[in-house]
Amino acid sequence: MSEIIQFPVSNKQQKSDLDAVIDEALRAIPRTDREKLRFELIKTIDSYDGFFTEWSLSLPEDSNEALRKQIYDIAHQEHDRKMRMLKDIMRLKIKVLVAEYQQRK
């Protein structure tokens, strides 16, 4: 048996520290160009969407509830790890976008 599990992305958790990092990185960029860089960041993150939000789990048909719970618990732990990885990618990507912008100017 295989099923796709959707994991919600908690924007509340990411918002506080991640937005501060992004805002700090963009502070020296003129307002009009700032929005272009934000858009590029969003495009990059959207390209990873399925990798970070969908899981395919194959569960043995004769598995008991304890085994299923263990598998789901592991999947949630892995999801949390991927969310931390996504935050790191966003932090690095905005720094790269700002550095590329500054080289062009």
Task: Describe this structure as you would to a colleague.
It is a single chain. Helix 1 (11-26) packs parallel to helix 4 (65-104) and helix 2 runs antiparallel to helix 4 (65-104). The model has no long low-confidence stretch (mean pLDDT 82). A two-stranded antiparallel sheet has the order 1-2. Helix content is 74%, strand content 10%. It has 4 helices and 2 strands; from the N terminus they run E-H-H-H-E-H. The chain has one domain. The longest helix has 40 residues, at 65-104. With 105 residues, the chain is mainly α. The protein has helices spanning 11-26, 31-47, 49-53, 65-104, and strands at 2-6, 54-58. It starts with a strand and ends with a helix.
Q: For the largest sheet, list the strands in their spatial order.
A: 1-2
Structural class: mainly alpha
Radius of gyration: 18 Å
Q: Tally of extended strands?
A: 2
- Which percent range describes the beta-strand content? 5-15%
Distance between the termini: 55 Å
Mean pLDDT: 82
Summarize the main sheet: 2 strands, antiparallel
Query: What is the approximate shape?
Result: elongated
